[in-house]
Amino acid sequence: MNDEQDRIFRETEADHFFERNRAFLEKKHYASEDLPLRIMEMYNLRPGSVLEIGAATGYRLAAIHELYGRDIRAVAIDASEKAVAEGKRLFPDVEFCCCPATDIPYQEPFEMVIVHS
Fold this sequence. Notes:
Layout: H1 3-20, H2 22-26, H3 35-42, E1 49-53, H4 59-68, E2 73-78, H5 81-90, E3 95-98, E4 112-115
Parallel strand pairs: 1-2, 1-4, 2-3
């Protein structure tokens, strides 16, 4: 995407997507129902740092914290200001960044990156 497309997405679709999917994002999620969490369990993955792109409220990262320990650095990236605000309210252990995937401000490596819907 170019800068203009990013701006339009952030100003319109990002929050609309969150609102359309709010009911799903508000329900309790279990590892048995979530593909990335199932893969982590299946392969006994225990990363020290996780970055999720398109994380919405960060519910998956909060589950990783709950399941695998609070010492994991969990960073949620989402373009929706509403999703990020809700995530910060619900999951204070997750670090949030409101930006498009094309502008992630982190330079350091993460042991795991999740890009999943």
